[in-house]
Amino acid sequence: MIENGFTALPDLAVRSLGGSVVAASDEAFAVKENLVNPWAPTFSPGTFGPRGQEYDGWETRRRRPDARGELGHDWAVVRLGLPGVIRGVVIDTAWFRGNFPPLASVEACAAEGYPAPDELAGWVEIVPRSPLEGDRAHFFPVEVERRFTHVRLNVFPDGGVARLRVHGEVVPDPRPLAGLTVDLAALENGARVTGCSDEFYSSPGNMLFPGLARTQAEGWETARRRGAGNDWAVVRLAAAGVVRLAELDTGNLRFNAPGWASLSGMDERADPGRWFPLLERTRLQPDLRHRFRIEDAPETTHVRLDVHPDGGMARLRLLGDLSPSGARALRERWARLGGG
């Protein structure tokens, strides 16, 4: 049960994945950093501060023509937390009703290393100048098949935007991964959840996020199962590899952790649909990081986590080695999408 459409893909710009608004033309009324907040925009009417009504978004001052009669426009630059191929952008003007921009566009660029905002170049338009409405999320598919590291939101001429979501597929730089033990299930390395039985409370994709979950909402949690069977999620690994160590973290899940869990692997290239055991059904404890060595595992492209009968998992780590073919596939994809 994974949602269709580009919004099912991770938000590469969200703050919880390392996204940052690194520059803006103006933020007189509401600060630029709000654009990448992970939560849905909120609003409390009648809350006035030194900058006016407080908004959970980015809002610029009213523009006036300069001495040459030019009005110009406002912009904000976001460094993606996870670089990748952008499949769609959401520009959300939630709660901005009389102060939203009538038009907006989005550009993107790819940069090596750690450039300052004024060193970015090679901008490519990925969303043409398009009309916006107030208090509404606007969805724009993107069809540019390239890896990007930064995006620039342009609003014409001024106004407020609550959130900018940049959904896409993570494309890691393969060079730091070569020859090292890596987390084959990490979102930042290119892994992705491709299917699950249930995501009633929260998405299974959360299990692949970096860091520790701070609350139970930051992991995966299913509804209470009343019938037979068990819940499960399938992870497509960052690339083909051999899993050496599995970490199943039930952190913060004190009364809703699974009783047991198991792991299965599949090599989709050699025998799609045939699952083999990696970790037999094993008892779990609540609010605990469990670590299990995986002995003599074959090469794997997908891993299925089964939780018995239901419950939640904060994080899933699968440490191991990229196979030669997996490392080669990462390098080839990186080069095809514009990597160095």
Automatic annotation (TrEMBL):
EC number of this enzyme: 3.5.3.4
Biological pathway: Nitrogen metabolism; (S)-allantoin degradation; (S)-ureidoglycolate from allantoate (aminidohydrolase route): step 1/1
Domain of life of the source: Bacteria
GO-annotated molecular function: allantoicase activity
Chain ranges of the Allantoicase domain: 18-170, 190-321
Catalysed conversion reaction: allantoate + H2O = (S)-ureidoglycolate + urea
Pfam families hit by this protein: Allantoicase
UniProt cross-references to HAMAP family, sorted A to Z: Allantoicase
Protein's UniProt name: Probable allantoicase
Naturally occurring in which organism (per UniProt): Thermomonospora echinospora
Gene this chain is encoded by: alc
